[in-house]
Amino acid sequence: MLKTIEYIDGVVRMIDQTKLPLDKEFVDCKTIDEVGNAIKTMVIRGAPAIGVAAAMGVSLGAHSIEAKDFDTFYSQLETMCDTLGKSRPTAVNLAWGIERMKRVARENKDLPIDQLKKRLEQEAKTVCDEDIEINRKMGLNGQTLIESGNTVLTHCNAGALATAGYGTALGVIRAAVEQGKDIQVLANETRPFLQGARLTVWELKEDDIPVTLITDNMSGHFMRNEKIHAVVVGADRIAGNGDVANKIGTYMVAVLAQKHGIPFYVAAPISTLDLTLASGNEIPIEERSSAEVVSINNRRITPEGIDAAHPAFDVTPNDLVSAIITEKGIARPPYVETLRKLAES
Length: 345
Ligand code: MRU
Known about the structure:
Blueprint lengths: L4 E4 L2 E5 L10 E4 L2 H9 L6 H18 L5 H15 L8 H15 L5 H31 L7 E4 L14 H10 L5 E5 L6 H12 L4 E4 L4 H6 L5 E4 L3 E3 L4 E4 L2 H10 L4 E4 L5 E2 L16 H4 E2 L2 E2 L12 E4 L6 E4 L2 E3 L3 H10 L1
Parallel strand pairs: 4-5, 4-7, 5-6, 7-10, 8-11, 10-15
Antiparallel strand pairs: 1-2, 2-3, 8-9, 9-14, 12-13, 15-16
Helix pairs in contact: 1-2, 2-3, 2-4, 2-5, 3-4, 4-5, 5-6
Bound molecules: 5-S-methyl-1-O-phosphono-5-thio-D-ribulose.
The site of 5-S-methyl-1-O-phosphono-5-thio-D-ribulose has 17 residues, from helix 2 and strand 9.
């Protein structure tokens, strides 16, 4: 199985997602700052993968600290975590991964520092292994919503590459295929970073799952012509009321799906829920460089001097979301109640 991210011999190795699918290269991170930089530059991306990278980054940071007493160790670790936490704003999994590691450090404050560092390394590896397990459970839950013969539309890449393995939205599709269902996938190319065109179609092809690439502006056409039976996407952060932040363009797909009576499903682990937020209006939306809009593969496609906007995510209001699939079960409206119940179960 493809390894998106691995912790081997004190090095965090990631497949470089900026180079796929043309080149299969790996980036080795030896410091927490290198992990932060890999997150910022999208070498690794996708909410759960960012959470795993964060946990591994904190472990690298812990190993680099020379202090021998817990208070000094922890205060230096916190400073590093604060910097790492600023690498990308929207996916809550980043803060989740960092907070989990800080909690484990606090819970083991009486260990000698060398043992504490090993404990943190073990925790980071556990976060990675658990993510794959969670995705498999989510897939099994979600595949019950997909029937044999369905064509499923997905947006962005919520697959193995966006997680430690298997994927969230693509995990649902993989699980349906593993159950023997005949599934076709339509993948939106996902301008401007092209996660669909570069990553989703690549990993589905590797698994021999039938996929057709479409440009983002084609989904309405295929819905109107009854060629799409369900939409399944991932999420970067889900507010307490079920509003969903995901890749820019997701909202547009959800509006179209509702107009055509097509179910719109979101697959995300419990770690993507942010129940501290009452609504999606409070979710910070990352603004990325306009260079990613005016150029493709570093080749300019617009005249010089054109302003381009680049919000990297949008918020889909909960009334457009038919169900939220998690590893603990499927939540239906009213999400204020059902998400909390799932999170606490
Ligand atoms: O900017 P990206 O590529 O990190 O955005 C990724 C997405 O929006 C994914 O759909 C989301 O993280 C879910 S991944 C399982």
